[in-house]
Automatic annotation (TrEMBL), chains A, B:
Species assigned in the record: Paenibacillus hodogayensis
SUPFAM superfamilies: Bacterial luciferase-like
CDD domains in alphabetical order: Nitrilotriacetate_monoxgenase (cd01095)
InterPro entries: Diverse_substr_monoxygenases, Luciferase-like_dom, Luciferase-like_sf, NTA_MOA
NCBIfam families: FMN_nitrolo (TIGR03860)
Name by which UniProt lists this protein: LLM class flavin-dependent oxidoreductase
Amino acid sequence: MSEANRRMILNLVLSNAGSHRGAWRHPSTKLEDIHDLHHFLRLARKAEAARLDSLFIADGLSIEVKAVQHGPIFGYEPLTLLSSIATVTERIGLIATVSTSFTEPYNLARGFASLDHISGGRAGWNMVTTGVDRTAANFGLEHLPSHAERYKKAREFAEVVLKLWGSWETDALVQDRASGVYADADKVHDIFHEGPYFSVRGALNIMRSPQGRPLLVQAGSSEEGKDLAAEYAELIFTIQRTFEEGQHFYADIKARTAKAGRSPDSLKVLPGLHVVVGATEAEAQEKARELRGLGSIERSLMSLSNMLGIDFSGYSLDDLFPKLPEPGEANAYQSFHKMVKAVVDQRPVTIREVLEKYWVGNGDLNIAGTAEQVADVMEHWFRNGAADGFNVMPQLNGDTDLFLDLVVPELQRRGLFPEAYAGRTLRENLGLEPVL
Amino acid sequence: MSEANRRMILNLVLSNAGSHRGAWRHPSTKLEDIHDLHHFLRLARKAEAARLDSLFIADGLSIEVKAVQHGPIFGYEPLTLLSSIATVTERIGLIATVSTSFTEPYNLARGFASLDHISGGRAGWNMVTTGVDRTAANFGLEHLPSHAERYKKAREFAEVVLKLWGSWETDALVQDRASGVYADADKVHDIFHEGPYFSVRGALNIMRSPQGRPLLVQAGSSEEGKDLAAEYAELIFTIQRTFEEGQHFYADIKARTAKAGRSPDSLKVLPGLHVVVGATEAEAQEKARELRGLGSIERSLMSLSNMLGIDFSGYSLDDLFPKLPEPGEANAYQSFHKMVKAVVDQRPVTIREVLEKYWVGNGDLNIAGTAEQVADVMEHWFRNGAADGFNVMPQLNGDTDLFLDLVVPELQRRGLFPEAYAGRTLRENLGLEPVL
């Protein structure tokens, strides 16, 4: 794609009260909205009116009981919530996270094909392998399989899903009343997949969906995660803390995509963007300061513990951060582990320091400012090889309106973001090749 | 419940073109409706306007490639479709079939809790064990586990699901901004389930749903199926061919429910009702005759083969029906096997005879007539200990409107069916005890 035609991709990440853990306590949050379906439907319609590309739902398959005291859990199962949202929207993409470790490829392929039919071609699957060890215990296992094992299985899982989505040819339907032929059985195929992890005969019990196949999205930034994305995905979501890290990651992904035999343009890199928007810089900074005061450091420690696979229960917050094993030895979120390890290997820091200074919103790119200031940062990343767009996470849901009303038009004025949807399906709207 | 307060329960079974396999070929069917979401949304709203209790979606997890030529497959995954329907309806119940043999209890419990939240308390789970052997091959198995094994697993599956639905107490939410306490961690419980089939730690990653727990429905009529229903279910769907068989089944179920320590009223018996409605009897009979001419006997044979677990490929339709094994020896739909066995053991019959005479719409109760005639049969079954209501299956989707516009008001005139919904949740509307 020539630089002139290039345009930013923007997804909105749905959350109960905002991406900041303390957002539910902020006075601008209506407590009755936090779990209300209609609140999510309203956000979805508003995001569509602003022409956002997709809504995105992150997901996990376990909770830690003691964590519930610190803030809301999302709760809604992504495919059901997005099916509801699909019914009151027409153009916006709908991306759900589902793990390859705890479901069957036949069920997953069918669920996403169903959402793609329900939405008229707007479904996307964010494939994750699940990195939180306690999840294993909800599915009959003591521990998660190793990182390498999970990714080997994920790769075969994706293969099976793609075969199932392709098991009905586009023109299989005949519907000839006179002869009584409903569909052409020669255009529906068993897949007879046999692999180390899965044996699946097929065919899928749902016709080919409007997009040919739903969008593939990947959200892990380990070596295996990046390779999986380079081979299969159309979008990659990533956590990048600084512009330089973002540039490095971007170049790495594009190179891997080329190496996998695909055009580097065919995989779009979308860093997470935690954002606070204000009418003035002072207002934005004040909101960010308020939010910092509302977070629970104990809750952040629990998350850190889950993501690193380390038990901090014997430590106090002012103890020095323990030495982290080499990435290959830790069964954790590899890329996150690497980031924290870089910080703690540099000089002695306390656990509190890591939580407060280096780990805001899981370490993602983080901006508080006016619409213009936010757009400046986004443009800088976009124009200088660090992003094809962003997974937007308003730190406060109240800021979603500000982002949509102020930042999006500013990006449109700068010619960075389109004014209207190009088509009906998510693939059409993203300018991706149709899958026939 | 006293006989005076007793009222009929009516569910509408969703289908592409009607419950008759030839319905798609009937001139009253619009081919473009068959797979259209908006067609299902329209049916749902119309059924709600007529005050039907629930919509019901049957389901399977495999297709036979050569079957697709004979008629539509439903396709939509039930939880996603019902989440869409939930968004445009307010009162009608939403019952989805999901198998206990090919999913994880944690995922299932979460999916139904999510639908219950999305619908404001209208979700029901129809638990089945899957009896079609070829399904096994879509999930890494050569064959289905035995009937007995599947039901043992289903029972433990239901136990786990109930524990997970109960893992959040009703008043766990606190939402105290000042203290920063979001939920009371003492009111959210890991379940630590350990059994022969499942090991699940819990808690569920979604708050308690509006119904406390979604409705439990059971649809198998084998000995094990009936016992499972008697112990857990609130509705049982069944296939009954004659009034006498219906009475016998009804008495059997109520006795088993009492034996399980529950009030016989707490489990409602709903036979399937294949119905053709006409303005006159002649019109209804003519439609029924047209439909018989549109069915494919080859397709019926495939279904028979799947349900009995018998390969008919070496037979011609005019061969004598082969001898069936004793029920305990067949890994098939046990109750269906028993019904067909009773016919073929009585006297020699050809395969064609069984398909044409004894097996219309899987053998269910089957009526073609005026609204009054249809209501007469329903009243007879309802008043004389054969049914608490019906799972209504219009043989032609065009007849759904006739059923809703003519039969339902006739039942209301007779005082058999209520005029308005009693509450907001499915449990309230069915007059069932709340689950706190």
